Amino acid sequence: MRNNSRKLVFTTVVGASLLVLAGCGSNQSRENKQSISIMEQEDLGTLDNAQASNMTMYNMVNNVEEGLYRMGKDNKPHPGLATKVAQPINHGKTYIIHLRKGLKWDNGDKLDAQDFVYSWQRAVDPKTKAADSYVMENLKNYNAILHGKKSPKSLGVKALNSTTLRIDLTVASPYMNSLLAFASFFPVNPNTVKKSGSAYGTTSKDMSYAGPFKLVGWNGNNGSWKLIKNKNYWDKKHVKLSTIKVQVIKTPSTALNLFQSKKLDDAYLSGEQAGQEKNSPSFVKNYSSNSGYLAYNFNNKALRNLDLRKAISMTINRKELTDKVMQDGSKPAKGYIPAGVITNPNTGNDFADDTYDAEAVTPNKSKAKALAKKALKELGSKNVDLTLMSSDDDAEKQQASFIQGAVQQTLPNIHIKINSIPAKTALQNQMDHKGWDLSMSSWLGDYPDPYTWLQQLQSTGYDYGDWKNSEYDKLVANTNSTDSADNKSRFKDFVKAEKILMDNQVVAPLYQGADTHLRNTKLKGVVYHPTGIPYEYKTAYLK
């Protein structure tokens, strides 16, 4: 998923009112031992799963809604509103999925198969402008609908009866069941959408809920609200928490103070704090599937020179970046696709180990100097001036400054100017391939399959650098073709595609992100997912 929409970052301002609200969130309540207080780092802009665009939105949607499946603690799909995880038929292109009987929305409305049909058709309708509708690209007629050639009603999903759903794909998709656990595939209540109109999802009252919790107390602008147990949820007997109090806290010191005063049960840590608190019994670290990298803009003639790209990459000491600058538990990248997330079925090894290219991610100053000298000669230039774009987030600015220093100390003829701008503007500039030569970027996988990363760098994907390579495009397309049901063949093409990226230094992998917290040692059962939406509280409880 797009980098700035899935980052967990701190900004620099927090309203004084949060300090007052925090006093109401103590986990020491005598009245209810199963109430906790947590924080989010970004504002809650919407509860509409079709419009979610940051981590707070996704985390909330994932806990108040539910799809056919839920991702388990093993990061694999498990039955949610469906009775079981379906196996495809028709050479991998058709799924027949049965819903549980008696499903209800929190307001008592019946939840049936037609609600899924309505939701998915709504998501792919160009008028909806869904943030992540691309995850539905393999559903039959998606592309024709996207380009206005067919009606959303032609999408490959049908309700065969009130509890049976038929899904038809254009191509076999071995990762489809994982996708069906992603928020974009959650159902919405048609009655609520029609009643609320354009206000749908903009307040907690303009919503219907089908997940373990329902959200209350959010008017669309306030920075605190509650999740309360949904009494109409099909699996409510396994939901132990009755209340989750949520506050938006954007300043690291505020979060730490609230945790230490026992007014938060879970607090995100900044990089500096993570280093200081790593030995605390409350310290929790999870490696995410967030792949941080330096993007090259191939519209810049100088950066189309492979030797120059390699030279820049070889000046960067990834371990120093993660250990001394970021300090948040992130680790040096082994490649573009992160480690510990995907197993190669052909070898049984971690995919990142099978595709590891030491030269692509290891500093080598002497070779960097030689390659830069060669590149400048090939370009007929004495110097190269480059603009490195980053968001105005403090952590990312520090990363950009480190890279600027590493390049200019080793390659004095390569001049780098940093341009730090608001994240939203930076994202737009990346997508437009304008206003930058180098860019701080990252990509968080939506599901545990190499395709979610590799499709981004196709010429038809979110290729920020505007790089084009027909062989790469073909390899990635092969993994998502009508013959792609054979997962072992797919992974052979994935390995080849990753090798092309590293051999051509299309991006410079920098780090694999980590998610660090302080968590009440009595709070158990919180599920973390390295791909997709990270946090789930359905099984959480206070011991």
Keywords:
Dipeptide-binding Protein, domain 3; disordered N terminus; D-Maltodextrin-Binding Protein, domain 2; 20 strands; 543 residues; seven-stranded mixed beta sheet; SBP_5; alpha+beta; protein transport
- The tally of domains stands at 2
In CATH, the topology of the largest domain is named D-Maltodextrin-Binding Protein, domain 2
Strand content: 15-25%
In the CATH scheme, the class of the largest domain would be: Alpha Beta
Gyration radius (Cα, Å) is 24 Å
Number of DSSP E strands: 20
- Summarize model confidence as the mean pLDDT: 91
Query: Helix count?
Result: 19
Strand-pairing-aware structural class:
alpha+beta
What is the molecular shape?
globular
> Which homologous superfamily in CATH is the superfamily of the largest domain?
Periplasmic binding protein-like II
Query: Low-confidence parts lasting 5 or more residues at pLDDT below 50?
Result: 2-31
Under the CATH scheme, the architecture of the largest domain is: 3-Layer(aba) Sandwich
- How much helical structure, as a percent, in the residues? 25-40%
- For the report, how would you describe the main beta sheet? 7 strands, mixed
Outline the structure in words.
This protein is an alpha+beta fold and 543 residues long. It folds into two domains: 3-249 and 520-542, Periplasmic binding protein-like II (D-Maltodextrin-Binding Protein, domain 2); 290-514, Dipeptide-binding Protein, Domain 3 (Dipeptide-binding Protein, domain 3, Roll), CATH 3.10.105.10. 30% of the residues lie in helices and 20% in strands. The protein is built from 19 helices and 20 strands. The chain has helices spanning 3-6, 17-22, 55-64, 113-124, 142-146, 176-179, 190-196, 252-260, 271-277, 306-314, 318-326, 351-354, 358-361, 365-379, 394-410, 423-432, 451-454, 470-478, 487-503; strands spanning 35-40, 69-71, 77-79, 94-98, 157-161, 164-168, 213-216, 224-229, 243-248, 266-268, 283-296, 331-332, 384-391, 414-421, 438-444, 507-519, 523-524, 527-528, 535-536, 541-542. Strands 10, 11, 12, 13, 14, 15 and 16 form a seven-stranded mixed sheet that branches. The relative contact order is 0.16. Residues 2-31 have low confidence and may be disordered.
